[in-house]
């Protein structure tokens, strides 16, 4: 059993870790308090210094003035001090109001209304954070201090400081609020990865991203709805990195001074990055001397530039420190007039937006080299703007900038043009000296043969070994003409490239003779015509297939046309019905390949009635013709039941919807009763009949009725019209009136005007309608016309006389 002393020691031992942890927490809190107090004192001291400088008072008086201003404004000393530093231009005015014993609260009102429109807490936090971060040991500590003292009070949850590499890459120099896994995954971002940090680095300006952005960045998977602001961190005219701040939700509405202070924090990060990277001071005399030696060794005209900074440490211009011997001033000035002068003073047109100065400034800021083979460069020559094209290269070295600018003269442009022509045309040139055996190939020729640029060129006499065996005869004839007959020659061969592919090529060459006629060299060229060859092969195959398809299409159209003409003759034998004249016309489409599905029909039914119908199948070709035959014959069979037209169309709709391959068609169906002289009719999406009476033409009412095949349960409205002796009724398809540039109502009105007037009989009327039709849709046309005859002394005439006596 343990003694009491032993138990007491055990209890004390178990309590030691808890006591130690509490002590550590207390000391950590004290450290934070000391840091915060030191930061606040620094802000207050800076504000007192401003008052001393602006008002010319002692430090003690400045302390009392600051306390008095804070009391009148209802602010703490540190908050008012931060406002004074942000609004330094108006401090003197505000302070003078207090010194002049303004009414109580006047300073507070002035501060709120005009001179300190920003949040005091925001300004105070940011100023305090500047002081704390300035004392941090490294960039990681700076990131942690910024988040804790300045950004967290603004609602931010994380911050990252990125260091920019010379190649455009980004390195995570410090972060806070992100997980260790995120920091490991994003410790390095290669160039050209489209992150918000990369965008701020390129644009050299703040980038704001709202929630839901798809751009990849650190911690994006944890806070997909969060917002971010990324600011470039610049010092001495160089962008050394970026500061990225993350919020868990939308960015709070920051005042203008708050955004200004965020930029100040980014600048503070730049100084820390500069310290981590090591001093990159302006180019020293030794560095300039080294750059001058490097420039003198370059073959292109080169300028050595060093940055010129303004009083605030920002880049204002570049000074030309050295030019190499290849440099020639476009304005003809000697080098001593250029060296030592500011760049924008020597070449003011370089300051144009997006021009040369912007490129140099960006290279100096980011360290990313710039190179282009063709760039317009404008200079002043005798007070006139002279623009040339030049190959430009810009690099940042040892605190300075190397600028190479090679003006493209006619020889250079022609050489570049020839090179591009050879590349685009797949052409490679060669020269073979038959005396020395030296062979010269252009770069394109090595690629055409499938050989590396270091491989030895192949003599013409060994060409057969590189070509397809079947081309040996053509190559022998080519060499015999060229080398023995000494005449220009050409041939088409199939080169076997090193990778096993076959390239169709054309070889053209001509002999070079000396003064006495001896063959000394051969000049020539190869051209890769593989694409042309395979295009011709594909074109020939396409032509054969097209001819076969055209033959099949013509055969189908011929069969469809024969089927259509067999069922739909251009005219129909008249129906033998006393007192009634029935005529029909069918005009097929003008283009033989547009065989349509229009139909008409007129037949005497078993009950004595007369079935009159027209219809139009959607589409053209053999399918439309067979659909027309099916519906026409189906309607005949259904009409034999004696059903009314509305029921006939309902049944025909079932046939079109269920018993066919979903045929869509319009139709007009009528049954005429000779005893009552009444025509009962119905329509399925078709134009209604036209009635000619007493020299006037009118269109019957548009009864409701959906086109056939659209819905299985469609219902159709039915109408009736009683014909009088001399009346003519027309039923037609839309091929008679339809025009692409005219509405249906206008086309129908023109038909009514054409139909009006006297016609000897219904056949003449139908012929006149076809003759004067101005339809332009190349569609079939069907017309059915019936006329109730008027015969003196007949029963019909007597009936009409009786009708004439009725009111």
UniProtKB/TrEMBL annotation:
One Pfam family per UniProt: ANTAR
Q: Which SUPFAM superfamilies match?
A: CheY-like, GAF domain-like, PP2C-like, PYP-like sensor domain (PAS domain)
| Protein name in the entry | Serine phosphatase RsbU, regulator of sigma subunit
Q: Which domain of life is it from?
A: Bacteria
All residue ranges annotated as the PAC domain in the record: 489-541
Record's keyword terms, sorted: Hydrolase
Species this chain originates from: Actinokineospora iranica
All copies of domain ANTAR, residue ranges: 24-85
State a single Gene Ontology molecular function.
RNA binding
Q: Which PANTHER family match?
A: STAGE II SPORULATION PROTEIN E, STAGE II SPORULATION PROTEIN E-RELATED
